[in-house]
Amino acid sequence: SQEAASAPAGNVTTIRYDGESFRPDALVIAPGTTVTWMNDGEEPFWPASDDHPTHQKYTGGGFDPERPILPGKSWSFTFAKAGTWGFHDHLWPAAEGKIVVR
C-alpha cells in the first residue's frame, strides 16, 4: 500500500488503474471532492464501493458506474459524505483501495 495522497474540497483528483492495481490505492480528501478513476490498462475495469458484489457500503448509492469502464476511458464520483470508503474492481475484486473523506 502506498502513502495516502490528499486533495482539498472542490478539486478533482485521479486514481489510475493499470489492470492490476490502483495508484494511489489510498486517498484522503475533503467532502465535495471528485475522484476520477482512469483506466490505463488493456482490459475493462469497474471501480465500485465495497462490499463485492453489492457495492452498498457507500450508503445512498452512486459509488458504482454500473458498467465496465473501457481502456482509455474514465469514470468520476463526487464524495459528499465523511467516512472511510473501501472500493475494488468489480471484475477483479483482489484489486482494492480506500478513500477517506474528512
Question: Can I get a quick summary?
Answer:
With 102 residues, the protein is mostly beta strands. The protein has strands at 5-7, 12-17, 22-23, 26-29, 33-39, 47-49, 74-79, 83-89, 92-101.
What is the end-to-end distance? 20 Å
Number of continuous helical runs: 0
Order of helices and strands: EEEEEEEEE
**Describe the biggest sheet?**
5 strands, mixed
Class by helix and strand content?
Answer: mainly beta
Q: How many individual β-strands?
A: 9
**Ranges with pLDDT <50 over ≥5 residues?**
none
What percent of residues are in strands? over 45%
Biggest sheet: strand arrangement: 1-4-9-8-6
The general outline is globular
- Fraction in helix: under 10%
On the 0 to 100 scale, the average pLDDT is 92
Radius of gyration: 12 Å
